[in-house]
């Protein structure tokens, strides 16, 4: 029996609804939920391939305890695991006090999971040391909203995109990071040719490609830009004086500051033409409704809170808030970062948008929970939390649903903290993240498709998530693990109220308690229930008791949740980045996302085709900066600064200004022999939000001297085989100063291993490599070697198909070979081509043109489907081409009409 279950995509904060189909307890397919308001049936490449991540590959299937660091973890029963954990925590708390333990959790948990973690720390143990990866993500957005508007609430909704007259995208690349929102922007442009799109980003991104105006400002100079725009607006009489007078305070002070931000001065600070600043200001103020969309380019900064405030102030100055099509709309990164904020899951927050610093709020939460008090001392925010592990101030940490050994900046320090901790618990779905190596106890959590609860997306919309299949192995729901642990710990600590604090028999009971805590708060959801969410679909908050619908937009009446009801201008000034380019480190390093990968790739990294765009971390650099260092496209380089060094391949970036470089954040030790971008990034934090400056550091780049390249492509029978080969490839990392491993593939999955050395690779090493990938045999093998040039290549066939290729000394054929093998093209008769020293394939093997980059569909596939009678609808249904961004539709239509002439034999 197969049935569809309603859930959400577990990736970004757009919060798309999905329908999961499962058969016999196994997820077989996923499609966009046509009824979900966030996506109306659409999904991006990551969402559409979710079912491919739902297998059991690499899953953590039972609890495991490490006898000693460095030794393999061994399976234990749940009872023993939780007894052990509660005993260790109890002992540390008894000896060193509650602040000697900490929880580091995630915006990818369900609201209910988050709620019980928060209650465990603040309500049972009595420590505020519960922080999350939202500290790396949304905490400047939270602080920015609270400083200016009085509450952590995005006032806008997705419908505003359709109604805006001007959209300002600042420090966000939604084409890549929020693709379904971007589709909506593209649709809005088609519907309204007058719509103006302004993109503020130091790089010319995929999102900037559709902009009417791109402002490639210097990294970190957003405040200067926004102050400059306000200067122009004031000077040209474009502000809304009535709105300012009736609904805001602090304008005069900010106006005095921006008097100095003339377009000429701002042009200097931002490195863009003064006329563009004037144009942006005029468009924003006069072509409204004005909507701004922003994300990590503003948040991940040592002055991230003020970046947010400076932008929000433009909306206040022009009255562009609280009405259709207008407002400062912070895009949420993770799928449920909002839910985490709602339950107060940060070291300085309390349930239902309450503040830890506020005694009244603390008393309210204590009363709700029926305990004498919640602790007043603020907990440690992420960066400090890991520093406290290194210093020994915090001795035990419980990590859930995040991978700090990759995602926190200054990895050397973070890993030192993890290594120094007395006890590290990791609650994960996958067994092999970089953090797992540091865990003393690993606890298996249910993952996407297995979980249940609620999540809140960027537009404050709560969706009920249902499980489609039972848990994998012995995995348990995150909330269940916490509740079980809490009860055991409470008993060990003789906590009188433990059973009353954690009475839950179902996830719904947790939701109902959270709901009650929101009564009378800005996010009041007392009118919601699981039943209502299931029957009437996802709802926006607030949704108080008696309401029949949630509120689409906030602040329509111009009243703000501040003490006097007025929004605030908070006097913001330009500030430089925490680190500035100098002679030693003259280049800026920016980091962020790629379309098809999610963070540390624990899930997207098991879907071969999600590597087809890029299967290696590429450092984008301006051609002049490359020439200056005698670098050519494709060279391996040392990328380094005072904190660390990694070796990566350099690519001439088309969208970069000189002096700026760009590296994806996705690679860590699992896919390369280095910690990735965060080996280099610094941990300077914003004073209000404690969010680190993950968007910028300074570096130098130099030739690596690794002149001897190696590449292995290995065809695999299926995904399990591929993951096994990938593990084997990883076992070779330590042999090389440069090494990466990835999947790749369409019909047949491949593993691609690359490495390089400074001296020719000895024959023994090549033998080890061949043995690792099962390429030792002589039958079906051909070899080519040129000892003088240190070239040694081998191709091995099995059952008439190319099984694998090892290229050493020269790897020019890698790219076309990889594609041909991925399509299952290379039969044994073509073996000799595999060893050809050519970057272009032989004519008979011209690789297929990929027509639809989103669904990864080639012209060949389309041509043969059309020959088989497929029309456009059938192509979209079976191959999924043209169903994502739609950019390939003209090509598909061309193939549909031209096909008979081109392939007369097929007609
Ligand atoms: N494919 C994919 N999508 C994702 C994710 C993923 O891992 N993969 N992760 C999700 C999460 S958790 C998040 S937080 C979001 C992040 O979503 P975004 O913030 O949109 O994505 P990023 O690539 O991190 O950074 C956005 C842009 O900020 C620019 N930038 C850097 N410095 C500055 C600056 O000083 N000023 C300005 N104005 N811009 C600057 C960068 O050049 C980059 O293009 O994406 C979400 N969506
Ligand atoms: N240099 C640089 N660093 C960055 C950023 C950047 O732009 N540049 N961006 C930052 C941002 S915005 C973010 S949000 C962070 C993200 O950083 P992380 O949170 O470290 O990223 P993920 O890889 O998503 O980690 C989530 C982990 O949870 C596991 N998991 C998935 N579902 C579940 C579940 O239901 N339960 C449990 N228990 N585990 C689960 C996954 O397998 C995965 O390993 O990275 C930050 N780091
Ligand atoms: S836009 Fe975000 S939520 Fe929607 S399918 Fe893509 S990754 Fe998932
Ligand atoms: Mo994020």
UniProtKB/TrEMBL annotation:
> Residues in domain 4Fe-4S Mo/W bis-MGD-type?
2-58
Look up keyword Transmembrane and say if it applies. Answer: no
Q: Which CDD domains match?
A: MopB_CT_Nitrate-R-NapA-like (cd02791), MopB_Nitrate-R-NapA-like (cd02754)
Is Magnesium set as a keyword in this record?
Answer: no
Q: Which InterPro entries match?
A: Asp_de-COase-like_dom_sf, BFD-like_2Fe2S-bd_dom, BFD-like_2Fe2S-bd_dom_sf, CT_Nitrate-R-NapA-like, MoPterin_dinucl-bd_dom, Mopterin_OxRdtase, Mopterin_OxRdtase_4Fe-4S_dom, Prok_molybdopt-oxidoreductase
What's the cofactor?
A: [4Fe-4S] cluster; Mo-bis(molybdopterin guanine dinucleotide)
Superkingdom assignment: Bacteria
Q: Which SMART domains match?
A: Molybdop_Fe4S4 (SM00926)
Which keywords does UniProt give here?
4Fe-4S, Iron, Iron-sulfur, Metal-binding, Molybdenum, Nitrate assimilation, Oxidoreductase
Cross-referenced Pfam families, in alphabetical order? Fer2_BFD, Molybdop_Fe4S4, Molybdopterin, Molydop_binding
Family assignment?
Belongs to the prokaryotic molybdopterin-containing oxidoreductase family. NasA/NapA/NarB subfamily.
Q: What is this protein called?
A: Molybdopterin-dependent oxidoreductase
